[in-house]
């Protein structure tokens, strides 16, 4: 995604059991002078991670990095084009 967009500030972060964590990415972006982060949960559907875990993590990060505006976007799976793509893929595979 970085290569295709030419945007070197696109970062991947994991919520749990993998690195880099969202906390580590936020710390690195803060050190680099970033003042706004948009978080796109790469989740197929809203659930506990989208509704509770990610907002709780971001709330803690806002306290550690108050100079960074943090916005949580809806999970990617809630986007209408994602739903269309899923229907098309399921149709092809079944």
What order do the helices and strands come in, and which of them pair?
Elements: H1 2-5, H2 22-31, E1 36-39, H3 48-64, E2 69-72, H4 80-93
Parallel strand pairs: 1-2
Q: What percentage of amino acids are in beta strands?
A: 5-15%
Let me know the number of strands.
Answer: 2
CATH architecture: 3-Layer(aba) Sandwich
| Helix/strand structural class | mainly alpha
Secondary-structure element order, N to C:
HHEHEH
The name CATH uses for the topology is: Rossmann fold
| Share of helical residues | 40-55%
Number of domains: 1
Give the C-level CATH assignment. Alpha Beta
Q: Give me the Rg, rounded.
A: 15 Å
Tally of alpha and pi helices: 4
Shape from CA axes? globular
In whole angstroms, the N-to-C terminal distance is 29 Å
For the biggest sheet, the summary is: 2 strands, parallel
Taking pLDDT < 50 over at least 5 consecutive residues as the criterion, the unreliable ranges are: none
Mean pLDDT: 92
Lateral arrangement of strands in the main beta sheet: 1-2
Provide structural commentary:
By secondary structure, the chain is mostly helical. The protein has one domain: Rossmann fold (3-Layer(aba) Sandwich). Helix content is 48%, strand content 9%. The chain has a two-stranded parallel sheet with strand order 1-2. Strand 1 (36-39), helix 3 (48-64) and strand 2 form a beta-alpha-beta unit.
């Amino acid at each position: 995604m970085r290569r295709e967009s030419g945007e070197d500030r696109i970062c991947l972060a994991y919520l749990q059991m993998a690195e880099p964590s969202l906390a580590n990415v936020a710390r690195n972006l803060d050190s680099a002078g970033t003042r706004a982060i948009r978080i796109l949960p790469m989740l197929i559907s809203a659930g506990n991670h989208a509704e509770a875990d990610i907002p709780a993590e971001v709330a803690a990060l806002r306290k550690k990095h108050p100079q960074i505006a943090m916005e949580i976007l809806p999970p990617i799976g809630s986007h209408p084009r994602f739903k269309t793509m899923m229907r098309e893929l399921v149709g092809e595979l079944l």
